[in-house]
Amino acid sequence: MGCAMLLGRPAWGWGPYGHQLVNGAAVEALPEPLRGFYRANREHLEALSMMPDEWRASDRQEGPRHFIDLDRYGSAPNFDIPHDYQAAVLKHGKAKVDSNGIVPWVIEQRFQQLVKAMKNRDAADIVYQSAALGHYVADIHVPFHATENYDGQMTQQRGIHARFEEGVVERFVKSGSVKPKPAKEIPNVVVAAFDWAAESLSLVPDLLRADKEAQKAVGNLDYDEVYYNLFSKTASGIAARRLNDAAHALASLWFTAWVKAGRPPLKPVKVANPSPFLIGNKFNRLYHLATCRWLPSPETRVTLASREQARQGGYRPCPYCRPSGSK
Ligand SMILES: [Zn+2]
Ligand SMILES: [Zn+2]
């Protein structure tokens, strides 16, 4: 049953708008000379911000990488979960730890991959790892990614997940309101990630209460503009704050990775193609760079590992992004 529930949890996150905001705004919180490189690649960082959600279609293990149900381990400030993954598995068993969500450890892993990319001075990989890291960092800052009542299903408030992270964000959060504080070094990435999750969880009761009150005042379950105006009085402030916190955390991780890698010089140049993946369209059989502006809709997308695989599958290169000549 745990398994069925897990598979049933949809690909939530901030939604494309929120994820783009976080990846883009983080750039401006960086110090020079790092900022120049990230500015030059800002478009890529935004375009690739949803990638990890797309991996769910082909990888059954991807889902739990986007959340951690912290309240399954007790309550703040004493969560009964070791910060070390192996220690956590030893204590609770792998099945439980994995199904409760593993986003803090995924952030640590992605961070290490970014350090490696920086040490190798591999500009394309730096952009790719930075974008993927941004997705998980944004997710861990969503209150409903830190609780077992992740969709209000335990309190008769089903749908609150999307009402908060998409409904409120798209209606009330202006892109200019995400202006994160300057990046700072993070001494311990896993410890920081658990703190971000705990902060997320602490905001859940206020959101549940605001949703209940808005429902009561409206008197139906239509979730129209009247509902959103009421819910947003609490929710839009929380959403803006968490987007800012996420962008600050992300910039801090990028900066810390760069320091750990020995502050390699990075030229402020846009890389040609940061993603090792290509994206195919099942229907018109075109394939694209992951950064193409004419990508197919998510339902018709296939992730392809190489040009060779694309050719064998009968795919032709997109005339706009010209994926055949790029790698
Ligand atoms: Zn996600
Ligand atoms: Zn294309």
Briefly, what is this?
This protein is mostly helical. It has helices spanning 2-8, 15-27, 34-40, 42-47, 51-55, 85-92, 94-99, 103-119, 123-140, 160-172, 189-202, 204-218, 225-260, 307-312, and strands at 278-281, 286-289, 301-304, 316-317.
In DSSP terms (H or I, runs of 4 or more residues), the helix count works out at: 14
Q: Approximately how much helix is present in the residues? A: 40-55%
Structural class: mainly alpha
CATH topology of the largest domain: P1 Nuclease
Identify the CATH architecture of the largest domain.
Orthogonal Bundle
Order of H and E elements? HHHHHHHHHHHHHEEEHE
The average pLDDT score comes to 91
N- to C-terminal separation? 44 Å
Strand order of the largest sheet: 3-1-2-4
- What overall geometry do the principal axes of the alpha carbons give? globular
Poorly predicted runs of 5 or more residues: 1-7
Any idea how many domains?
A: 2
**Rg estimate, integer Å:** 20 Å
Would you mind describing this structure in some detail?
- The protein is mostly helical.
- Helix 2 (15-27) packs across helix 9 (123-140), helix 8 runs antiparallel to helix 11 (189-202) and helix 10 (160-172) crosses helix 13 (225-260).
- The chain has 14 helices and four strands.
- It has a four-stranded mixed beta sheet with strand order 3-1-2-4.
- It folds into two domains: 2-260, Orthogonal Bundle (P1 Nuclease), CATH 1.10.575.10; 278-325, no CATH class.
Q: Key terms for this structure?
A:
single chain, 327 residues, mainly alpha, P1 Nuclease, 2 domains, 4-stranded mixed beta sheet, 14 helices, 4 strands, 52% helix, globular, disordered N terminus, binds zinc ion
